[in-house]
Amino acid sequence: MLGVYLSGLKSFISERFGADVWESSVPETLENQVQYGKPGSTFDFELFSILTPVAEQVDVPVSELLKMFGRYIFPRLLDFMPEAREQDMSFRSFMISVDRVVHKDVQRLYPDVRVPKIEFIQQANKLTMFYRSERKLCYLAEGLIIGAADFFQEQIELRHLMCMHHGADYCEIEIIIQ
Ligand code: HEM
Fold first, then answer.
1. How far, in Å, from the CA of 57 to the mean position of ligand 1?
2. 169 and 103, same structural domain?
3. What is the pLDDT of residues 65-104, one digit of tens each?
């Protein structure tokens, strides 16, 4: 499953903005990695440094591109988790299983991969998510959450209350379930 983020990034950029944008933005070494499906963590490369030239070309901020990409990639990630489609899982039960089940399994299968630390406080109409990762990919996390809401057909609203990009030690994202 490693590589799904990278090949997904190529199709996301090519489909949304054109193959020429991908070709002119990514370094050759990365393109080789996509083509030959080289194993290794997808985030060995720097997602921010790939998306920065794309953002300049298409005039969309990197934070927004990461969100769009998270939403786009979510159904592809679920292909590795058929039980989410088969079982009677809700948006809420899926979300709270991401850290203790999904990412834990990822870590067991691929010990070298680093996944973020995600914790929740649960309340009746909302989940408060605490995200910690040295990669600071909280915008990607937001997009993945929106992708999960699309999949489970849940109406949600996100509020990014605290952010590592603004000096906080962790991100706090409130997910209001309508
Ligand atoms: C809404 C649900 C999810 C959220 C919020 C989430 C969040 C994230 C984020 C933000 C990262 C980037 C690394 C970092 O921040 O340090 C990541 C990595 C990863 N996630 Fe998730 N994730 C979700 C669901 C899933 C699912 C369903 C799968 C697959 C079954 C998955 C598998 C992975 C893998 C394999 C990586 C590491 C990729 C690599 O290093 O190559 N995640 N996750």
1. 27
2. yes
3. 999 999 999 999 988 887 777 777 899 999 999 999 999 9
